[in-house]
Amino acid sequence: MPDVRVRSMCLLLALCMVLLPLASAAHAESYFTPRRTFGALFLGGSLFMAKKSLDFHRDAGDIYDAYKVAGNSQLADRLYSRASDRDTKSQMSLGMSLILLAGGLRLLISSGVDDNVPKHDEKIRLEMTGNPKTGSVGVAFSKGF
Questions:
Q1: Distance (Å, rounded) from C-alpha 77 to C-alpha 144?
Q2: pLDDT per residue of the chain (145 residues) written in tens, 0 to 9
Q3: Strand partners, 124
Q4: Contact indicator for 102, 65 with CB cutoff of 8 Å
Q5: CA dist 113 → 13, 42, 87 (Å)
Q6: CA 53 to the chain's CA centroid
Q7: Which of 3, 59, 76, 102 is the most exposed place for a label (fewest CB within 10 A)?
Q8: Would you give the DSSP letter of residue 109?
């Protein structure tokens, strides 16, 4: 049963990765914008972390099964702590996967938004002064209104 859910989730994520950028490609000048590139990277990272989460979860289950049949208390303590560690890593990997998924989808969905924003001409001047006799350096930022 879990394999069906994993496969369907992977299929859904793959469809999102393929279809979402194509929907907004007609409006943008270039297909490879920074937002789309980072969005695809985030989605790839999300898939990687989801796979690691499943691997850690399987390892934790196997180690916990070995803990149940452990012969002595020292081995049981070591196995329990390893199972707990793998379970924690599984949960953290799943959380990171969801964060990367949300960030990647947000970047892909909003990839054409910045093209319509007018650019502001903000001139900020940087003035640097120095005095070699005293060894001091001065930095000043100024902006005209």
A1: 68
A2: 456 666 666 666 665 666 555 555 445 456 677 888 888 999 999 999 999 999 999 999 999 999 999 889 999 999 999 999 999 999 999 999 999 999 999 988 886 655 555 555 567 777 788 888 887 888 877 776 6
A3: 143
A4: no
A5: 23, 19, 40
A6: 14
A7: 3
A8: H
CA 139, CA 129: separation in Å to the nearest integer?
6
Q: 0.70 exceeded by the pTM?
A: no
The long-range contacts involving 65-68, CB below 8 angstroms and separated by at least 24 positions, are: none
Cα dihedral across residues 47, 49, 50, 54: positive or negative = positive
**Helix, strand or coil, per DSSP, at residue 98:** helix
Neighbours of 63 (CB within 10 A): 19
The distance from CA 59 to its chain's CA centroid, rounded to whole angstroms, is 23
For 141, list phi and psi in degrees, rounded to 5: -105, 135
The secondary structure of the chain in percent helix, strand, coil, rounded to multiples of 5, reads 70, 10, 20
Listed by start position, the domains of the chain span 7-113
- Contacts (Cβ under 8 Å, ≥6 apart) of 136: 130
